[in-house]
Amino acid sequence: MKKISFIMELRSFLLLWSSQTVSELGTAMTNYALIIWVYGQKGTASSVTMLTICSFLPTIFFRFIGGTLADRWDKKRIMLLADFVAACGTVAVLGLYSFSALRIWHLYLINVLLSFMNAFQTPASFVATSLLVPKEHYSRVGGLQGIAGSAVSILAPALGSCLLAFGGMKVVLICDLLSFFFAFVVLLFFIKIPKIEQTEEKSSEPFFRSCLDGIRYLRDHLALLYITLFLAVINFLAKLGNDGMISPFVLGRTGNNQQALGFVQSSVALGLLVGSIVITLMKPARNKTKVVFISCAFVFSGNVVQSLTLIPWIWCIAAFGSYVMAVVMNANLTVIMREKVPLEMQGRVFSAKDTLQNCTIPLGLFLGGILADHVFEPFMATDSPVQKVLSYLFGSGNGSGIAVIFFCVGILGITISLSQLRKSIYKDLNT
Prior knowledge:
- The protein is mainly α.
- The protein has helices spanning 2-9, 11-42, 45-72, 75-98, 104-132, 138-166, 169-190, 200-203, 207-211, 213-220, 222-240, 242-253, 258-281, 288-307, 312-340, 346-358, 361-380, 385-394, 400-419.
- Helix 3 (45-72) packs antiparallel against helix 16, helix 4 runs antiparallel to helix 5 (104-132) and helix 6 (138-166) runs antiparallel to helix 13 (258-281).
- The two termini are 31 Å apart.
């Protein structure tokens, strides 16, 4: 009976969750195929990281506006419009590729457009989930979302590789469009998202002043602000390390072996899946911030392990363990946000937090590509005493310079994460 009651309480969310998962799978297969295509065109780490940078910058710049609109406008309409624009981007790629006119700069431009729409879709989706889900199920729903994301990550490389091998890029793009159509129809006709009643004072507040409400809320709640700034540092380091550089690292160390990359990415996804199942089944943690910092330290330990070996299956084990802990960390952070921020403020506060913590990601990606291509990789190809010492630890040849970056990032990330355990300012987030 409890299971039936759980399903009935979450019926609308489960329908939205499952349909969006199908659409995310199509998008993930396309992203995987395009990374392979871009690296094949240029063969540089910076060409891949630039693709990701274009996916972040507009989201960061426009997230404040997106969060305000998510609190004021119809969430469903925002999500439908964003999905439609994303589908138009896929159509554009399909058309350019079909006529052999696709260039890397086209993908950069399309990613900028999609990132702009994501600035509006993500806060709308966050608030919509809070509206569709009872508070007692926040943690389990976070686990379910993690399961969906990890399942997509597991299947996307495998299915993307198969479709590329047997049907080519066109088939991957067509599957993406079909998955979008399914999710769009479900959201349009079968999902009803409750509306939030705005007070007269808030509804008449000037729009641009309302955009800054999230920042003011974080400023007035220092524990949330401090943990957001901590995440900004962590995101910068993560993009310098294996979260942003795993594709060029594996492809460089294995001589562009797509199968090896697929195995590592599938291990990441399997870790996400196992971590999500754990979060779904376990009771919510009492001291959520302690869990966040300890699990973050374990995440960065994966960088250290991967940097010290040339064996792909060890990369896979390290990736699996790191991302199990990443799910635990992110799930507890999400619960903190949903519990500590009033529902009518969640769009703006979520957007403010997201902007602050993610503003360092483009810098991390850009700097990672530059350091790999122009500093560490060339240095590890030279014949010098320091290079000889480093080569004992990190090997030599393509990818060894990125391995050095991974090691440095891992040690620094572990140190910063564990140093937060002694700070008492976070104790209010656990009450």
